[in-house]
């Protein structure tokens, strides 16, 4: 459905360090970096889709987080959701909902929510059932 998602950043180097570590548990390495233009891409590979891009805003204005916007990354399992969340918290992300089930979305929605250093709301979610980690969580996100 999506070709790519782009988020603006006000501190390109900080964003690279954050997302390099954050997306590693999901197998999404950085495949492109252009420091001069201020953009970088992440995906399973250079030709893979969808892609996630960071960039300094083209219009030269400060980047800002969208009100009501969430970028959700799909994880292959619940352990990857926890690894994503732990990496983010270790780098100073703001907590928006710790890893757990969100049955108000569906019975197997296991997700974690956070804000990146620029204030963008992110989610990491696994939609698969895992009998070994039935951790009820009715916290709203």
Rough outline = globular
Task: Spell the H/E element sequence.
Answer: EHEEEEHEEE
State Rg: 15 Å
Largest sheet: 4 strands, mixed
Q: DSSP helix count? A: 2
Detail the poorly predicted runs. 136-140
Output the strand order for the largest sheet: 1-4-3-2
Which percent bin holds the helix content?
10-25%
Strand segment count: 8
First CA to last CA: what distance? 24 Å
Q: What number is the mean pLDDT?
A: 92
Structural class: alpha/beta
Query: What is the percentage of strand-forming residues?
Result: 25-35%
Describe the model:
The chain has 141 residues and is an alpha/beta fold. Helices cover 18% and strands 31% of the residues. It is built from two helices and eight strands, in the order E-H-E-E-E-E-H-E-E-E. The chain has helices at residues 12-23, 78-90, and strands spanning 4-8, 30-34, 39-42, 51-55, 70-74, 94-101, 110-115, 121-126. The strands form two sheets. The protein has a four-stranded mixed beta sheet, covered by helices on one side. Strand 7 and strand 8 (121-126) form a beta hairpin. Helix 1 runs antiparallel to helix 2. The longest helix is centred in the middle third of the chain and has 13 residues, at 78-90.
């Amino acid at each position: 459905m999506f070709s790519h998602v782009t988020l603006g950043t006000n501190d390109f180097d900080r964003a690279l360090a954050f997302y390099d570590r954050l997306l590693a548990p999901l197998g999404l390495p950085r495949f492109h970096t252009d420091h001069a233009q201020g953009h970088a891409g992440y995906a399973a590979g250079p030709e893979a889709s969808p892609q996630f891009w960071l960039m300094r805003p083209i219009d030269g204005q400060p980047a800002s987080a969208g009100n009501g916007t969430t970028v959700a990354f799909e994880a292959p399992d619940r352990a990857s959701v926890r690894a994503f969340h732990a990496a983010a918290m270790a780098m100073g992300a703001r907590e928006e909902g710790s890893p757990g089930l969100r049955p108000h979305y569906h019975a197997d929605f296991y997700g974690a929510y956070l804000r990146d250093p620029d204030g963008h709301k992110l989610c990491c979610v696994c939609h698969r059932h895992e009998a070994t980690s039935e951790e009820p969580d009715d916290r709203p996100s």
